[in-house]
Each structure stands twice: as structure tokens, then as C-alpha cells.
Amino acid sequence: MKTGEVAVFVLLLLPVLAGCAPPATPVPTAPVRRATPTISAPATATVSPSPSPRPSPTPSPPVTVQAEVRALRGNLSNQIARLEQNAPRANSNRFVVPSDAEMAAFSAIVRGVERGEVARAAHLAERNGYELVRYTDRGDGQAESWLLRERKPFRRGWGMYLFRIGSRSQVVVEAPHPLFDAGTPAVAMAAYRALQARALLVAGAQRHANRDGSADAAHHRRTIFQAVHRASMGTGEDVVVLQIHGFSAAHHAAYPQVVLGSDHGRAATPVNELAAALTGRGIRVGVCGRGLWEDLCGTKNVQAASVQNGVFIHLELDESIRHDPRGLLAVLAQVIVP
Ligand SMILES: [Zn+2]
After folding, report:
1. Residues 154 and 250 in one domain
2. Which of 9, 72, 95, 150 counts the most CB atoms within 10 A of its CB?
3. How far is the CA of 177 from the centre of ligand 1 (A)?
4. What is the whole-number distance in angstroms between the Cα of residue 18 and the centre of ligand 1?
5. Distances (CA, A) of 116 to 29, 121, 197, 224
6. What value does the CA radius of gyration of the chain take, rounded to a whole number of Å?
7. Looking at 21, 37, 66, which one is the last position of a domain?
8. The last residue of a domain, from among 40, 66, 92
9. Are residues 226 and 129 in the same domain?
């Protein structure tokens, strides 16, 4: 029997032995085999040279088990629902204002993910009530991302973050106001998918969760959302941040369906292109400036203020667009990722 055949035989046989062998006969355990997914020397070394198919319990060669990051497969919309179900509600005072050390820890997690130091990042997440998992999105052609999410039960309300594995995109999509801007995490997720964006950032608390306003991720700097935002900017000049908000058409009579805001610097060109393309699709759009739509322009937005290089676009969507964002997504795909 060739070495490879022995190895295959052992791999097939072991589950049977594990189920029926007496307890006194230890066999290599399943986690060891998972840590060495390829048919390798340590696996063959467990096979006795005797004709008996039963593997000898000794000698047991040392097997280095790499620190593993859990893999999870599902539809990303379920992760959005998980966040929305567990996020601190208005006036609950359940959003925890992070310390300097906690802000730094999440920056380090993002940098670790970007550098491929995933086991270290996962360990750091673990120490902060979070988990880092390798997530396969069934709703997006099995696309793979690192998913950073709070462990249940939620005790912090710090948000959920995805980083697309192997991405070359410069697009970062953000939803800082879950629950309050109803449906915006789902729109942001759809944009993350449609643009094959580099990162998706969803804040983890209703903006009025704390009575002092500290849970409002778009207007307070001391949030994990802001720490992850800053760490996600990279060093290049090409980053494009799309931040998704929602407003009530009933409370904004005579406003368009979409209001686009920016710093009017670098973002002016893409914003004007977006506006033209939206208009071309029959979507009513307004561009901030000259005092128009001012309450929806994100003028005090802290993420906008911390985009040093690149472009920040603030998108306010009424209910009709949040309910059916297909036209918006098609325009974003056309203009942002030409
Ligand atoms: Zn908002």
C-alpha cells in the first residue's frame, strides 16, 4: 500500500473507530485531523506497520495545532437581523462608552486583519467580548469576509464589521444609525455586496440608546464604530466612504428622495455624477450646498471629519429608497465602481 493510500484509509476509518473502539484505545482526535487538512506525514505516522488496520496509540507524534478562526456560513442578512435584535434600544443606557484601551484594541484588530495576523486579531476580539469569524455569505455568491461581531448576550453595543477577504476595493460602506434610520444596515449590506466593497461598518446601538447622546456613532468620536472607521481608511488616497442614513419623507415635505452630502472638495465630482445618474433613473435627488436640505447634510459628521485622504459621501434616503434600493444600487455600481 502506498503512503497516500494508507493516509486516505486512516482518514476514512478513524471516524468508525472513534465510535466503536473501547475507551482504553485512544485514537487521534478529530480536531487534530482538522488542523492538518492535507494528507501529511503526521497522519501517516500514526499508522502501525502491522497488518492490523487499527492504528497504534503510540507513538503519537507532536502535532502543531494552529490557532484557528471559526468559520461560519450563512446569509449576511441574518447577521444584520442578529445585530438589530440585540442592539441597545433608545433610552436604555446600555451602550458602553469605550475606553482608550478598548478603542486601541479595535484599531489593532482591524490592522491585524489587514496584515493577515488573523489569529492575533481573533484573540484580541475575544478579550473584548467579540469574535472574529471567517464568514461565507450565501447571499453573495459565497463571498468571504472576516466578520467581527459581538458575542451574545450583547453587553456593549459596539457594532458589527466585515472586511472582504482579498479585496482590492477602496470602498467602505457605513451604517451608523441602526434602528433609528430604519433599514439602513440592510441597504449598506446590499451596497457592500453590489460594489464588492472592502469593508462594511454597522454601528451597534440606537443613536439615542444613552440619554447623554454618547451612542450616536455619527456624532461622537468615542465609539468603536469611529475607531474601526479610522483604522479602515488605510493610507491610500483613493478611499471612498459611503455612509447610509434614512429620513422621514413625512417630516420633510418637498424634499427629494435622496439627499447627497459631501465635503464639497474631492467628493464634488462623484456626488454630481451620482446625482445625474439617479436623476436619469427617475429618482428625485438633492445635492447639499447653498443652504439646501441642510438638516440632512451631515455637517457635523465625525467620520466625514476624519477622512484625511479620499472621499466621504453622505447619503440620506427616504423610505421609498430604503424599501427598494435597487435603482440606487445600480447607480452606485455604475458611478463608484466604473
Ligand atoms: Zn442617520
Report:
1. yes
2. 95
3. 5
4. 55
5. 28, 9, 18, 21
6. 25
7. 66
8. 66
9. yes
C-alpha–C-alpha distance, residues 154 and 290, integer Å = 43
Question: Which residues does 301 contact at the CB level (< 8 Å), separation at least 6?
Answer: 218, 219, 243, 312, 314
Distance 293 CA to ligand 1 centre (A): 14
What protein residues have CB closer than 5 angstroms to ion ligand 1?
A: 177, 181, 245
Tell me whether residue 16 is exposed, middle or buried, using C-beta atoms within 10 angstroms of its C-beta: 0 to 12, 13 to 18, 19 or more: exposed
pLDDT number for residue 264:
62
> Residue 87's pLDDT is what?
98
The per-residue pLDDT for 236 is 64
In the predicted model, residues of the chain with pLDDT beneath 70 are 1-67, 236, 264, 338
Give the domain range for residue 38: 1-66
Does the pTM surpass 0.85? The reply is: no
pLDDT given at position 235: 72
